[in-house]
Specification:
Layout: E1 4-5, E2 17-18, E3 38-45, H1 52-60, E4 65-72, H2 75-85, E5 93-98, H3 102-107, E6 111-112, E7 132-145, H4 156-160, E8 168-171, H5 177-190, H6 194-201, E9 205-209, H7 212-220, E10 226-230, H8 233-241, E11 246-249, E12 255-265, H9 271-281, H10 284-287, H11 289-294, E13 297-298
Parallel strand pairs: 3-4, 3-5, 8-9, 8-10
Antiparallel strand pairs: 1-12, 2-3, 5-12, 6-12, 7-10, 7-11, 7-12, 7-13
Length: 303
Amino acid sequence: MSCFQGERNVFSKKSDLRRLWAFQPLLPQQPHKTSPPSPFTLMMALPQIGPGPQLKAGFEANCDCEVDFVGADSSIGALRKAQLEGPGTKADIILGLDTSVAAEAKNTELFTDHNVDLSTLDLPVDYTSNQFVPFDYGYFAFVYDSSKIETPPSSFEELAAMDEDFKIAIQDPRSSTPGLGLVLWMQTAKGDQADELWADIAPNILTVTKGWSEAYSLFLEGEVDMVLSYTSSPSYHRIAEEEDKYLAAQFEEGHYVQVELAGILESSDQKELASDFLSFLVSQGGQKNHPDHQLDVPCGTIG
């Protein structure tokens, strides 16, 4: 399966669950008792932002359950956290893995089958899995400030040819999905030339951060000229800040797609409820949250 998308106009589109009366004639009335909602816990990166709060509210409105969150510093961080915690993890579902780490995640044997119908989903790549449910997708890109840079590089070769004072920030592929995505993007686009290009680009790399937020903060503070991010990042600035100077550089090679996934942990004691949540995630009620709050392309119908 190739996640590489060439010649797509991606810029016009837009990268926790375990806390899931008696009437007796002629006798004193007994107090009414109500069963507490089933606890259900989602593990995800930065649950306080993105679609997390909306997914919680939407699912709780139709289930006798309470959705809680366990945070992680990144999608890869969520997988590492589950690996460290093992069967003792509080999470029922990990939300926000992606296709780049799906094979590794499956090999951990931490995940169980989801039993969710995925036949109606529309994905930019062929992807099927019994363990993981795709729910949105986006594309990696280098983001720049158009008020400072009139003509950004439009290919990996042009990036490698930039003066050494032109600096970029990227992320560590061992701890960051964008960082891993860049490695796969270059390998898919350039093949045997990738190693040479990495060497040529190295002088332009100011730093390799652990996660996306650290690198993006450096960019916003003016420490670097471009940052590895998503094609949807400029949309956030337009919507949230009414700022249109941030743009995504369109590369001739095309852009590598990131399909986000969710999976039920084998250790969960709320597997039926977890499966219901994943069905909600890909339903119209769940999918409508992703364009506005995640700024990614939904995999299903949003109405």
